[in-house]
Amino acid sequence: MRILSTAALYTALALGANAAVADMAMLEALKDGDMVKLSLASDPAPTSLEPFMDETGAEMTFADFQGKVVLVNFWATWCAPCREEMPSLAELQTELGGDDFQVVTIATGRNPPSAVDRFMDEIGVDTLPRYTDPRQALARSMGVMGLPVTVILDRDGNEVGRLMGGAEWNSESAKAILAAVMAPAN
Length: 186
Description:
Elements: H1 2-14, H2 24-29, E1 39-46, E2 52-53, E3 59-60, E4 69-75, H3 80-96, E5 101-108, H4 113-123, E6 131-133, H5 137-141, E7 149-153, E8 158-164, H6 172-182
């Protein structure tokens, strides 16, 4: 299976896939394992302008990540599937994070900073941001009805994919899909 995923990844990169012009069939072919739950947008649309809070309490928006592919994960401290998937998100950030890619984790709802810190400490994750959406305004504006929900944004801030429920974000399939979205257009 790894050979198939790797072949699909290199095919995607060779084709110069970009979320704005990507062949949906090619991206669909990259889906395996948990990624079969990923819904790809046939017509990527701009995402919410609602602010969320950084660790200091300052407001941010997705515009702060313009130019990067962003994997946004909505979660909560009480969410068991969130606890299971968070280490894979941390691993993905460690492996791919940088100028082209960022994992943005947003605790939505009532998640006091002390509870967020305790959650991250308990699962041994220290490489992910601790953003919050205390009034759930961002989550509501993006149609997040349950947790976890993960949204992939292209470099222009358009939603190109959404996965409801937990997933292994450090899987070969997830990395192949993200590499295809990050690849420059020809």
